[in-house]
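Cross-check.
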Amino acid sequence: MELIIAKDALSKMKKLLPMQHDFLLHLDDGQGIDFHEHVSCSVNLHFRLLEVKDHHMHPAYDVRIESTIGPVYVKSYSVMYLDPINYIRLGGYGEFQLAGKYAGNIDANLSVTLYE
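Predicted model, tokenized:
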């Protein structure tokens, strides 16, 4: 499995994040570490790309995906929503998007944040 980050998306990420730590691709489903106070159940998928100090502190994220920014870790059951090749790109309004080679848009509004 692979995650390719477009040059313009990577440039925007570098302005938002220190890019010095580990990364988690968090499926916002209320499992694993709850990064939000509120979790909703809906038909839409929502992912967050989170920069964390050490992925070992988050053992639920046990699958490694190679990416443009180094390894990104996901929960094992999250991979069923991803394609063998995935992309992070910018949408028409500058929002981050997660897309699969075959599935197309997986998350049209991917959150990219530092988690401390």
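The two ends are 27 Å apart (CA to CA). The domain at 2-114 is CATH 2.60.300.12 (Hypothetical Protein Aq_1857; Chain: A;). Passed to J.P. for a second look.
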